[in-house]
Amino acid sequence: MPTxxxxxxxxxxxxxxxxxxxxxxxxxxxxxxxxxLFLRSRGGADPVNCLWALDLEPADGSGGAERLxxxxxxGAERLxxxxxxxxxxxxxxxxxxxxxxxxxxSQAERTRRERTGQLGQGxxxxxxxxxxxxxxxxxxxxxxxxxxxxGAARRLPAEAPVVDPCPDPTGRRIAYLSGDxxxxxxxxxxxxxxxxxxxxxxxxxGRPEHVAAESMGRHRGYWWAPDxxxxxxxxxxxxxxxxxxxxxxxxxxxxxxxVRYPAAGTANAEVTLWLADLAGRxxxxxxxxxxxxxxxxxxxxxxxxxxxxxxxxxxxxxxxxVDPADGATTTLQEQRDDCWVQLVQGLPARTASGxxxxxxxxxxxxxxxxxxxxxxxxxxxxxxxxxVDGDRVLFAASxxxxxxxxWSWEPASGARRLTDEPGRHGxxxxxxxxxxxxxxxxRPGSRTRVxxxxxxxxxxxxxxxxxxxxxRVESAAVGPRGLRTQLFLPSWYREGDGPLPVLLDPYAxxxxxxxVDDGAWWALLSQWFAERxxxxxxxxxxxxxxxxxxxxxxxxGDSVGPALDDQVAALHATAERRPGLLDLDRVGIRGWSFGGxxxxxxxxxxxxxxxxxxxxAGNHDQRLYDTHWRERFLGHPDEHPEWYDRSSLLGDAxxxxxxxxxxxxxxxxxxxxxxxxxxxxxxxxAGHPHEVLPLSGATHAVTSxxxxxxxxxxxxxxxxxx
Length: 722
Description:
This protein is an alpha+beta fold. Among the domains are: 204-343, no CATH class; 345-431; 473-718, Rossmann fold, CATH 3.40.50. The protein is built from twelve helices and 45 strands. Helix 1 (9-15) runs antiparallel to helix 12. The protein is globular.
């Protein structure tokens, strides 16, 4: 990996988009296994992604790799499409594409990138036909195709701005969103037409509603039939959803942006599914929508269209088979849970032979199931189904929560673990080619290798920058509950130097696990704070993914109290494990999103333990978050108002006795800035001074060197760090 010039880590995080620039992403393997497509920019500080292809020699046909072989070279990279439009690939002026360094993006595209966590520019996403011979993508709202074998690229005369294009499996046509309509155009640029147009003022076709994209992980609202002649399409009617307004006070010349936000306890969008042909004729898919108002997943495979629907209380999920002739549905599977049915990415799915893939929660284990029967053993927690190739299933799972291994299941041989080294492993498979991705504490950055039976591994080069600092981290399971922790110490610290002030640096919520042996960017950030004079402790407590269903459900009815208790327990257990190292009279905490809620709760509820806090983008009033996510853990606010009061912080405002810095992006449409403003107002009403840092023009995802320096100055000042 290339090194970089002298800089600070916050500057490097900002410049490299958290080390995503130059790293391979969005991997696709052709069905015959001879081509791997991926996105990557030209360097670790280059923000413009390009579409690359790795060509491989034909495999010997003796079966897929089940263990990781030695490294070698057996392929050649090429560039089918340059995200800048440089040279003869895409005949577009780079200034036209990037607007002098800034892409011309519709609000719909900005929202899509925010929801999917895409930080770069240029070709940020793409889709292919079944053979991976045709790839489609957008540049500044225009639709492009590229022949992945020849690199012949073409801009199609589609109705701009284009969002979320996808070719049909045969490669003859491309569906895309424009405005609130779903349209189809021939891959040769002919026959552009609307398949479904809005039939109401707040209606859209083919676009996921807010809770689907933000809380369910469903980022698409249409799915092609295998023959490319019809589509399964979501119609979203948001007329009943509350209309909220986002304004940036630093831009008074701009009108506030109206958004439909389904806050907890309020009306959701009405989502229906339709079978549509290319002439625009539609047939409604019928199920009990009054009881099952959420569409959590859908698709159309060789066995027909299907959809997973969920009740408002999220305790029941049904998988429905859809009759493509008349839209009637039959139940293939039903799951129930006393708290909520978890949604697992990559499921539901079916193998080539028609076996239904799902999961079963039993105690501390989330099993992978095939036709309802568990095929993985006790203690192995299913994380995600990564790909289904024929009757083979590639999935990620954990026997130990701090590592995520790559596993394979086949009918004849059962489940087998493919990875041996600690870290976070992932991948995708096509034919006899397996692309394996890995991150670990021992090796900075991600590593991507192409593995085939009987051949040396081919590494896909990462051009991401090397971090400017190295980790000094101790991993441990502490206390009676075996809380997984990582303790970051300054590189210059020596035993006997005396106790260090402590900074807790958690997320510790249901959406994210920080304590994994993967060396992610947030571990580097914890190390940066450590270098400035702290012992930095990251701890994963109750509710965090990776320790099984029972652990996840301990936050049901109270999303803040148990999580805070585990942070305190991890701190004290670490102090016992490392006597004389931690100065418990100088303990700070910082966090973002749920971590921001936790940081504010720490100084409000446990001032005996915590002496200063930085709370970024926290959800301090639980009634201000969306229906699907918040009601999963706290139920409906009309039924359990006490659960919402228990997990909200406005009532704790009179308790503040410690320094508190509140930070929030002013145009955050995920956790609205109203959360921070309401908490600040409650603190002022209680007569308690505090600091508020508004971030003009910022959304929920913020990367800023200056913001990190500001947090550091606040913590050092109030914790008396020289």
